[in-house]
Design brief:
Length: 212
Amino acid sequence: MMIAWESLSAIGDSRALLPLAAILAVFLPTVHRRLLWRWSAAIGVVAGITLVSKIAFMGWGLGIESLDFTGISGHAAMSSTIYPIALWLLACGRSHRPWAWALAGALLAVAIAASRLPLRAHSLSEILIGLALGLTATACVLRNAQASARSVAVRGRTALLAIAVATAFPVLLADLHTHDLVKATAKALSGRERALDRHDLRSQPAATRRHH
């Protein structure tokens, strides 16, 4: 069962999500350009809020002990910002019900988020806040969006390229761990010798005093 959770978690990794979104954006039919700008802004805002929440805890201990909160789940936030819209775009021009595909993307994001619990990567509060953030961003992007089976479809080869790149990047960048980059950033900005972790949340007063 753990293999299934790990596989789900893997497709929610930013090393897969961001290349997938980038390929779709580059080759998106011009009719969707206005939506693209909203989607790009949403990805940037969600990624920024998620990153700030992690650095705030790792660097300065700004978490919530009662909620076991040490930073927003990036897998939950980014998956729910990217997969529903990506599937909506791929369904436009192919399906009479692109909204059903967007819902499928949202359900996929929920499954990815849920995988972080048995893997002990995040607490429930971190996952729920990530999903709320990402799904709110998705709703804002798709608000008033128009689509039908007559819409201009994303080319099949573009979809295949996006999937191929999303699959290849985590393998090619296997030594790149975004969590380690966030920890390094938190240490550099706060001046700490080490980034705080979940164990420090329960002894926060002592942890926040150890600032070297």
